[in-house]
Amino acid sequence: MADISPAGWPAMRSTRAFFRAIAFVLKVFPMLPSRPVDWVTPRPVVEKVRYPQADGEAEGELYRPATGSRLPGIVVCLGVVPFGVEHPQVPVLGRALARAGFAALLYWSPHMRDFRLDAEDIGNLALAYRWLVDRPDVDASRSGLLGTCVGGSFALLAAADSTVRDRIGFIGAYAPFGSMATFAQDIASATHWVAGERRPWQVDQLTRRVFVQSLTADLEPLEAERLRSAFTISAAAPELQGLSPEARQVQAVLAAKGEAAAEAALRELPADTHRRLDQLSPVKYLQDVHAPVVVILHDEGDQVVPISESRQIQAILAGRSGLHYTVMHFSHLDPAKGRLPLHRLLREFVNFFAGILPLFVRSTEAPRKDSASQG
């Protein structure tokens, strides 16, 4: 019989966290058997909501259990995805989080839908999070941010925002980049750091597209379109003539062949561009991240964001209590693409479960009566 005395509460919460994490894993991966989860968890409710943003309001969907109050909240930033909000995997994620006991707000960035990164999303994510934890049915002390790919990086950046950083209980990031400066060099040179040296890295086409879109965002529209048409697929394109000095600097980066050429071209970019890259670099703001639990997972052979990027974050946070770093062997969170043999695939599911479990442990801690009035 379970111990229901105060001394037994931590054990009960750990058991609850364990089963909620199992429920999430079973529901979020379509290839796993998940029907039993539906029998023992509350039915998810999907609410159309409006939440504040810097330029007004955004419309989104809030997934939550049909029953319960003082729920842990979670704002999810899916990052740049090659499909729209109507993709069937999007509600699968929302319902999986609701089955696991969360009130989950899925944040969609108009900039990321346009395949580019913009610092405006940092403040907007913080605004969305503040709106969520201010709800009377959400407990801020057990709430947090979750992001995948560049969404993980923006989750870390938003967690450093002074308006919310002391109200965030956890951060989960899958395959985040640490520094836009080094990430840009990774992409431009098609190399990344391994064991203290740069080695070849096969850049995913989505990564290349976002890089080109973001780097050309501040150019005159016609010049930006010329560069995007020429260099989105690869650096192997003829040199364009008649460009402005600013566009020629960007072209040098996009056309770079090899580590030395990429490094030199990036160094010549305007100071404003370098400041913008720093704005988008979590490693510059980790000292302002106060969340007691930080969970990072990354696939070792990731071609969208190289694992060397999240290793930078791990190195800076090393020794800090509450940091959990897990190396995976899926293919950018896609078990099917990895084509692993069954025994290794099962081992990776267990590895994923163990990696995310600290988020669920934090989210099942005893609610704090004053958390709704903080901040």
In short:
The protein has helices spanning 9-28, 35-40, 89-99, 110-113, 120-133, 150-159, 180-189, 205-215, 221-231, 245-254, 259-267, 271-279, 307-317, 335-338, 342-363, and strands spanning 44-53, 56-65, 71-77, 103-107, 138-148, 170-174, 191-194, 197-200, 293-299, 323-328. With 375 residues, the chain is of the alpha/beta class.
- On the 0 to 100 scale, the average pLDDT is 89
Order of helices and strands: HHEEEHEHHEHEHEEHHHHHEHEHH
Helical content, roughly? Answer: 40-55%
- Going by CATH, the homologous superfamily of the largest domain would be Alpha/Beta hydrolase fold, catalytic domain
Number of domains: 2
Most strands sheet? 8 strands, mixed
Low-confidence stretches: 1-10, 370-375
Task: Return the CATH architecture of the largest domain.
Answer: 3-Layer(aba) Sandwich
Helix segment tally: 15
What structural category characterises the helix and strand content? alpha/beta
CATH fold field value of the largest domain: Rossmann fold
The CATH C-level name of the largest domain is Alpha Beta
Shape: globular
Total E-strand runs: 10
Strand neighbour order, sheet with most strands: 1-2-4-3-5-6-9-10
Instruction: Tell me the β content.
Output: 15-25%
Integer-rounded radius of gyration: 21 Å
Please report the distance between the alpha carbons of the first and last residues: 40 Å
